[in-house]
Amino acid sequence: MKLLPFLLLLSSPVWADLATSLDALRAVTKEGQGNEAATSAWSSVSQAKASEVTKLLAAMDGANPLAQNWIRAAVGVIEDREGKTLPVAEVATFLKDTKHSPEARALAFDLLQRHAPDEAAKLTPQLIEDPSADLRRHPVAKLIEEGEAALAKQDKDAAAKAFQQALNGARDEDQIKVLAKQLRALGKTVDLPAHFGFLMNWKLIAPFNNSERKGFDEVFPPEQKLDFSATYPGKGKDAKWQDFTSTDEYGKIDFNKPFGMEKEVVGYAAAEFISKEARDAEIRMGCKNGWKVWLNGKLIFARDEYHRGAKLDQYKLPCQLQAGKNTLLVKCCQNEQKETWTVEWEFQLRICDATGTAIASAK
Amino acid sequence: MRFILSSTALLALTLSSAHADWLQFRGPDASAVSTESKTPVDNLKVAWSVDLPGRGLSSPIIVGDKVFLTAASGPEQATLHVFCFSAADGKKVWERSLRATGRTMTQSKTCVAAPTPCSDGKRVFALYSSNDLFAFDLDGNLLWLRGLTYDYANASNSLGMAQSPMIVGGTLVVQSENDSESFTAGIDVNTGKNLWKMERPKAANWSSALALKEGVVALQSSKGITGVKAATGEVVWNYTDGASTIPSSALGGGTIYAASNGITALMPEGGSVSQLWRNEKLRPGTASPVVVGSDLFVINNAGVLLKADTKSGDDDSKFKLRLKGPFSGSPVAAGKRLYIVGERGTFQAIDTASPEGSILQEIELTNKDSKDLVLCTPAIAGGAVYARSDKKLWKVE
Asked: ipTM, 2 decimals?
């Protein structure tokens, strides 16, 4: 019986207009394609009633980031105009449904925080295992507060419990750093490489020539075939594969360690990753050298920027893991600069899901 | 009927002159010089200040009675804000918050809201280091958007980008010049689509363009300065003797005072550019030079204000005014006054007419314990000077 009003609503011209307009926003893509249609559609969408705001949020599902921003802007206008009459219960229901996009649900939570803060606070603990890294930040922050409060009362067990629960849910580096420090101060073990999913064990080969930065585009033998027993003529010496295990808890693979502080050189790193199943994943890179990364022989991304800085998750690269063995190959190029801040010839790489949750190799 | 039309025209004229505009980074033509007859008075006070929710070093721009400003908040500065404040009292008129689609990594001192927005008087175009570009009308309605790193995946700078966009005719000139996928684009202000896109030197660049005569913009890079027709992207002249990638050049009387090998005066004419003089002793630090009347002013890396003659390039040996720096922002001018804010928040009004130069007035904008740095270039409109930090926006008048 409840289906009838919904069908009537769907068939009503008003909702049909809104749906059509939202489709125009969702159709926006690269280089401004779809902008003209979106401009007039946005005008219509932004006039939607507050009661329709979850329809806008739902339209963010599966939409590209540009389309999501069009919709986000319209939600902002509706909120400005009718914030007091937003359907808080519907927004909360939307938030709880993890089938909706993480970005839309994060926006739903923001609306609740501003217009129903009690409801937002009530829902916060439930977000600790959320698919949205943004949403996880809230319960993690709350648990950090609880742990610090317990510490202030000298209740170390309660503090450790709160910090550990928070660390299990935390996906952002700033919060993880705080939690690792607190837990270690309480005598607990924290395995950051496992938490992040850094690949620690690699085979490395270097040095190939990168004079005038030409090595970035040059195809050296490891790009054609991975033969770990092979030796190749390198820059001034033979290039041979050798095993390398990172001891850095942020997973840095430092070519300077096995090969010396070379300049104008190219190194390669290869690793195997065993996936239990075929699945979507992300390769997340941090690197301040020129680099390329291949997964199972397919180039995922290439970047020829040198010494402008590196950080965790600097590049988030969606990829598809195949079931069983996957082969990663990283090309890491050092340039000619001589300044002290250009010594690094290294990268860090982790494999995780879109939330940032580590995916461990099956062996 | 004639009377009615005349009255309407008069009213429009009156409204126009009553409205104060500073529409882009460094104001009219990016010269950093106010063209308004009403200049700030000599006894300035903070008229109002407002708190900001996120970081930013972009300048405010002023369109009529509205002040527009950008900021970025959140742990990765991924929430991109555009604010509209009332120039009269600082009250927020509207705010829009969108999400970055490009990379938000920057060196720690700079931030995502580094480029200054611009306006054609009807619309506001906001650009961020993440290469997100939004067009709003003055009432906060979204007109179009782009994600330039979403479009061109290697167009980013891990130190952060800061080049400010500029409108010439119907073209929004956007520079995204970096070590990798480096380009400048002319974008249709109506649709947000590319009118043209040109490859630029593969080198990080934080300098912004100048607007010259006949719809030409001067694009500065490590290679030099290139004159480009904003409407078409056609290169009309090229100066290839190198230029700075941090301070932008100055403009006065059609001459470019290029931040190149010290300061090099360049006269663009038609399809060529000629060098008038060069003074290698005039070395701007981070702040860009500015022309006031027949004088060129440069702030060097030591925070000393230097003066030179725009015709000869000869520096005035008497004029060496130590300011309260260091400076990340640049000076702006109205009448014979320069206005600048040091990183530690000291607003300074400078008299350029006295023989050795003098600081007429200082105002401490920030609490010295707050560590709230002021990195912006001020804006001037309606006899007031506007500046911002990560935490506040001030109107000084």
From this structure: 0.94
